[in-house]
């Protein structure tokens, strides 16, 4: 099939590459000329394992190209995929201005029947508005479909080539038939439904996953006070098939480009129809506070943070990505600076992006994990990068001024800590001891 993908962020680029990988002709359009130039040279503007190789192979095979010319791309395609951003407005609502502009561009260029498939995460009712925006500018027939995207950053290629399910929301039988054929090579698990239900499936899925995370984070906070181990609790819960083991890792809360924005947007969607989504509001509130447990534990260990040097390992919102959108590290580092600490930070790949969000003379940017830890009064692990799990903890302790370790992601086990001098604070595991049999105080 001939496909145009509009927008080459995570979703547009990964979808474009993967649809070409399964044999379609794909043109990816972006209105950012620098991005298009970079992509044409075979370079990927985001860090995503496996993406560059797959993209170059498909460009070489002649199935994948990049352009700024939206009109020509639309003329040459049967399916048009909308994959532009829908960031939060200050009130939490989704900003639909990019989607509206693209709809109007489609309306003014469409020259024959097309299927318009929305992959951007958009509030319920938006695809009806897209239909109206396009219809107001053209007499040509087209069908709308909402096909939400469920990929995760860091595993985006695998998630797209081997999805758990594909949701196709449309009122058109013709579109259902074509889109089923398009997705068949990826999975048999294809759910067809109406447009509004498809739009809601996306928000409900993200809100549910965010709820699981805030739930286990609250359980971890209670575990710290009652002397239980949250990782054993999650394991014990997870064997129950009705609960499942995924998304029960306690930590410093969720970040990233989706959960924070989509939970806020769903609260707004509910509010717009006079529904007070109390549960989701609590999920968001719990998440906003969870990250500051790192600061509370530092204060417990160091008393005052003013004048202290704090090492930070991990700036990205999760490992295997250079994305720092809504990363908990942003507010944690900001709070450290506000309290008079200096920060030495290290991330394997996200430092450059992070510096665009937070920079200060009180932060120095280390080029290795050990360099960040040197002479520090305490170390905070904020992202569970594999390289942090593999460090020699005895060597690490020797590098630091004070062996205080705040593990925000529970990356170390008791076996690793028990022979070290570290005063070790993790999340919801208060029983862990160090070489002196010392347990961190309960907060
Ligand atoms: N990032 C994810 O992991 C993920 C996963 C699932 C769903 N989503 C949803 O998918 C959508 C896209 O997310 P993203 O992270 O890929 O977005 P992004 O903001 O990273 O990228 C959007 C791209 O669209 C381009 N663009 C904007 N207006 C354009 C126009 N008129 N013509 C051509 N190009 C245009 C921008 O230059 C940019 O390259 C959002 O709605 C998001 O919620 C994202
Ligand atoms: O048990 C867990 C699982 C995740 N997280 C955190 O949750 C956030 C999001 O993680 P993840 O879901 O793996 O990454 P995203 O790339 O943001 O993917 C989510 O958001 C995308 C955009 O909507 C969806 O497509 C995906 O299905 C959905 O998982 C990160 O900060 C993680 O550290 C936890 O704290 N504990």
From TrEMBL:
Reactions this protein catalyses: UDP-alpha-D-glucose + 2 NAD(+) + H2O = UDP-alpha-D-glucuronate + 2 NADH + 3 H(+)
Q: What is the name attached to this protein's record? A: UDP-glucose 6-dehydrogenase
Pathway(s) annotated for this protein in UniProt: Nucleotide-sugar biosynthesis; UDP-alpha-D-glucuronate biosynthesis; UDP-alpha-D-glucuronate from UDP-alpha-D-glucose: step 1/1
Where, by residue number, does substrate bind?
150-153, 202, 247-251, 255, 318
Keywords attached to this entry: NAD, Oxidoreductase
Top-rank taxon, per record: Bacteria
Q: Where is the UDP-glucose/GDP-mannose dehydrogenase C-terminal domain positioned along the sequence?
A: 311-414
An individual GO BP term: polysaccharide biosynthetic process
Q: What is its EC number?
A: 1.1.1.22
The record's similarity note reads: Belongs to the UDP-glucose/GDP-mannose dehydrogenase family.
Active-site residues? 258
């Amino acid at each position: 099939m001939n496909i145009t993908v509009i927008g080459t962020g995570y979703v547009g680029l990964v979808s474009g590459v993967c649809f070409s990988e399964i044999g379609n002709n794909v043109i990816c359009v972006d209105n950012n000329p620098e991005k298009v130039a970079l992509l044409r040279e075979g370079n990927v503007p985001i860090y995503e394992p496996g993406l560059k190789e797959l993209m170059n192979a498909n460009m070489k095979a002649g199935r994948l190209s990049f352009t700024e010319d939206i009109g020509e791309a639309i003329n040459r395609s049967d399916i048009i995929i909308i994959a532009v951003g829908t960031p939060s407005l200050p009130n939490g609502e989704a900003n639909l201005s990019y989607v509206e502009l693209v709809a109007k561009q489609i309306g003014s260029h469409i020259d024959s029947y097309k299927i318009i498939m929305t992959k951007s995460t958009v509030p319920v009712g938006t695809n009806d508005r897209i239909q109206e925006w396009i219809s107001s500018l053209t007499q040509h027939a087209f069908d709308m479909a909402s096909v939400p995207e469920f990929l995760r950053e860091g595993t985006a290629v695998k998630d797209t080539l081997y999805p758990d399910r594909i949701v196709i929301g449309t009122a058109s039988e013709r579109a259902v038939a074509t889109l089923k054929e398009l997705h068949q090579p990826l999975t048999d698990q294809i759910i067809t439904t109406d447009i509004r239900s498809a739009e809601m499936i996306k928000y409900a899925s993200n809100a549910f996953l965010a709820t699981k995370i805030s739930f286990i984070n609250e359980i971890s906070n209670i575990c710290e006070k009652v002397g239980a181990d949250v990782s054993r609790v999650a394991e014990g819960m997870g064997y129950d098939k009705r609960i499942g083991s995924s998304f029960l890792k306690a930590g410093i809360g969720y970040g990233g480009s989706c959960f924070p924005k989509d939970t806020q947007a769903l609260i707004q969607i509910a509010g717009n129809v006079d529904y007070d989504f109390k549960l989701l509001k609590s999920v968001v509130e719990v998440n906003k506070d969870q990250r500051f447990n790192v600061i509370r534990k530092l204060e417990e260990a160091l008393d005052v943070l003013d004048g202290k040097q704090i090492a930070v390992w991990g700036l990205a919102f999760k490992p295997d990505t250079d994305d720092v959108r809504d990363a908990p590290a942003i507010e944690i580092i900001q709070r450290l600076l506000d309290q008079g600490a200096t920060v030495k930070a290290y991330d394997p790949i996200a430092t450059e992006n992070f510096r665009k969000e937070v920079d200060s003379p009180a932060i120095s940017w280390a080029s290795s994990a050990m360099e960040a830890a040197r002479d520090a009064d305490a170390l905070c692990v904020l992202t569970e990068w594999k390289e942090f799990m593999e460090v020699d903890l005895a060597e690490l302790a020797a590098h630091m001024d004070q062996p205080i370790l705040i593990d925000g992601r529970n990356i170390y086990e008791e076996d690793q800590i028990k022979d070290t001098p570290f005063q070790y604070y993790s999340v919801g595991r208060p029983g862990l001891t160090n070489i002196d049999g010392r347990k961190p105080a309960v907060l």
